[in-house]
Amino acid sequence: MKTPAGLATVALTAATLFSGSVLSLTGARGEAPTFASSAGELEVRTIARGLVNPWALAFLPDGTMLVTERPGRLRVVKSDGNISPPVNGVPEVWASGQGGLLDVVTDRSFTQNRTIYFCYAERADGGGRTAVARARLGDGNSRLDEVKVIFRQQGPLSSGNHYGCRIAQADDGNLFVTLGDHFAARDQAQSLGDHLGKVIRIAPDGSVPSGNPFLGRADARPEIWSYGHRNAQSLAIRPSSGELWEIEHGPRGGDEVNVIGKGKNYGWPVIGYGVDYSGARIHDATAKDGMEQPVKYWVPSIAPSGMTFYTGALFPQWSGSLFTGALRGAMLVRLTLNGNTVTAEERLLQDLNARIRDVRQGPDGALWLLTDSSSGRLLRVAPAGK
């Protein structure tokens, strides 16, 4: 068992004082509101609006963006805000409850192969499950070609909740994918016999790469990389170290930031820092031998979704920071890191009053956000005037 580091009791620096209050409703050039931050005034521009529950954002080499809408549409959005008609060829999704078309990422060699990966809720007999597909984005960005489902989650089906569904591609090309516990089947997160409550590692064609920790075990699914997770909607590889980081939703309290290790058990639902929605106790304890501790947790919950490690030049003060959106918390959260210890938390854009579903660093060094609503927005966050 690791010693907890950077947990909810962490002493926060003065950056916490910058809570995202609005400085101006018109912005430096009369075009966008500005908000206070430890890096100075932030200008938040609405690039596009009218997206229906947008879930994920991926940049193409020319600066245009792929945006998923949970009801099952993939859009191409240009930097000037132009939104394309739905891209043809997306498989049928089960847009029920929290399910639908979820994450999308481009392949590391996209300029050569035009390959993308996406995950979604797929209808099965009696419920839904997470599926992962790959496709080639056709010329003109108007259709998907060569669509192939490369992975289907195995285990008790979901009635509409906790699909997880974030994707991160490693330098070797292999894909890490978060898979939720389907809410009602939470105990399965401790079982190696199915994919519920797991982070998996698969090859780009869906096969099982060598080196997976449970490969060859008759009682375990070979795709599993780590287990004991609840509902992770954030996943990213830290550029400075190559480590895989994940953020998952707790119930009432206990949202977690984890550094994901090969074959490790992250404890859900045996250990944790929250309670059931009814207020009833869920966990045996907050710590147990053989189960990993988070590097940070939130009580009460902020409902984190989407994450990025900042490496751009627009915010040199924030180099190396971890950013995550917050749905229930309706804000952008910045975590200062010293190694794998969280040393400070800054809460940004709270007066924007928007559920932040995804956050990505753009090629321009700005932070790009998606807001979760039936009329969702694509936002660009940059220093005022830039």
Task: List the defining traits of the structure above.
single chain, 386 residues, mainly beta, Neuraminidase, 6-stranded antiparallel sheet, 4-stranded antiparallel sheet, 1 helix, 1% helix, globular, disordered N terminus
What's the alpha carbon Rg, rounded to whole Å? 20 Å
Termini separation comes to: 46 Å
CATH superfamily: TolB, C-terminal domain
**Dominant shape:** globular
Describe the main β-sheet briefly.
6 strands, antiparallel
Describe this structure in words.
With 386 residues, the protein is mainly beta. The chain has a single domain (14-383), classed as 6 Propeller (Neuraminidase). It contains 1 helix and 25 strands. A 6-stranded antiparallel sheet has the order 1-2-3-25-24-23, with no helix packed on it. It has a 4-stranded antiparallel sheet with strand order 7-8-9-10. Residues 1-30 have low confidence and may be disordered.
SSE arrangement:
Blueprint: E1 22-24, E2 34-35, E3 42-51, E4 54-59, E5 65-69, E6 73-77, E7 101-106, H1 110-113, E8 115-124, E9 127-137, E10 144-152, E11 164-169, E12 175-179, E13 198-202, E14 224-227, E15 231-237, E16 244-249, E17 255-260, E18 296-298, E19 304-309, E20 322-326, E21 331-338, E22 341-348, E23 356-361, E24 367-371, E25 376-383
Antiparallel strand pairs: 1-2, 2-3, 3-25, 4-5, 5-6, 7-8, 8-9, 9-10, 11-12, 12-13, 13-14, 15-16, 16-17, 17-18, 19-20, 20-21, 21-22, 23-24, 24-25
